[in-house]
Amino acid sequence: MSRREVKHAGFLFGPVPSRRLGRSLGIDVIPAKTCSLDCIYCESGSTTHLTLRRRAFFAPDPVMAELEAFLRRHGAAVDVLTFSAAGEPTLYQPLGELAGAIKRRFPEFPLVMLTNGTLLWDPAVRRDLLPFDRVIPSLDAADEETFARLNRPHPRLEFQRVLEGLRAFRRDYGGQYHLEIVLARGVNDSPEHLHRLARLVEGIGPDRVELNTVVRPPADPVVQGLEPHEMERAAVLFPAGCTEVIGSFRSRQTESSCDDLPDRIVALVRRRPCTPEETADVLGAPVERVLQAVVDLEREGRLVRRRFHGGEFLCGETGTRDP
Ligand code: SF4
């Protein structure tokens, strides 16, 4: 395999069927499952490298080259560019340099960051996030105990420090600050916990609160999501007028080519489990072709099918990817 083919498989995935962003082209500069947390609901499986240390896992230039090539061919099928990973994107040390270069070269695409927010106490991380149009950090817990049970943090990561980082970033950042909260049944969904969480959120003051739940196969198979009516009931407790329950993804149109379909399926579902229909929708391929490819990919051991919440999901092997 050529050097360029290796890089294509490593840096870009999707466009992903994001329920909140539309067709989101994922930019992933983190080795698989390298994260400061090991959330029980993680769609990408358990964290294999739990760390707080930022590193230049890859140089920015090949990422830019890959992005240039992809958008030249498939730009019409992309709504936003999103830093996201089967890990924590702010662990990438040259993040500010890469984000600035992307904004200068592709100003027409909103640049979004999905982060667990646990490194925002670091002024360098907050500075690196300034070029982004929207940053979506997470806060699922109102106390250290729930944080430990739900997010299983790195041993040196203190809950109060994470809260301080979320507040400091609100002061520094002028872009769209959305706070994501994932609710898991029996873990952080009690009325008492939700009340305390809502007070913390008010203290941070994000532009929007996005309430989410477990809708794809999680790292811990016993974890369950909430029903839609339970999510709506929880939303009432959070700041009025800026809280939304994340709805289902609806693709506007798919024009992407079916080139390299098996590789693109794997690149997509190893970061985010998708149903065959979602996969077909996002990759611009007939569902029959996706299902044909899935048969071969299953035989080769490159993906598996898992049932969750009444649906069948295609899930990739995250494995490890050396920098
Ligand atoms: S959900 Fe995000 S923050 Fe949590 S373990 Fe997975 S990649 Fe890390």
Automatic annotation (TrEMBL):
KW Kinase (keyword) present: no
Record flagged with keyword Protease: no
Cofactor(s) in the UniProt record: [4Fe-4S] cluster
InterPro entries linked to this entry: Aldolase_TIM, Elp3/MiaA/NifB-like_rSAM, GTPase_Obg, rSAM, rSAM_sf
SUPFAM superfamilies found in the cross-reference section: Radical SAM enzymes
Domain of life: Bacteria
Every Radical SAM core domain range: 21-255
Stored Pfam families: Radical_SAM
Keyword annotations: 4Fe-4S, Iron, Iron-sulfur, Metal-binding, S-adenosyl-L-methionine
GO molecular function, one term: metal ion binding
PANTHER family per UniProt: FEMO COFACTOR BIOSYNTHESIS PROTEIN NIFB-RELATED (PTHR43787), UPF0026 PROTEIN SLR1464 (PTHR43787:SF11)
Protein name stated in the entry: Wyosine [tRNA(Phe)-imidazoG37] synthetase, radical SAM superfamily
Organism: Desulfacinum hydrothermale DSM 13146
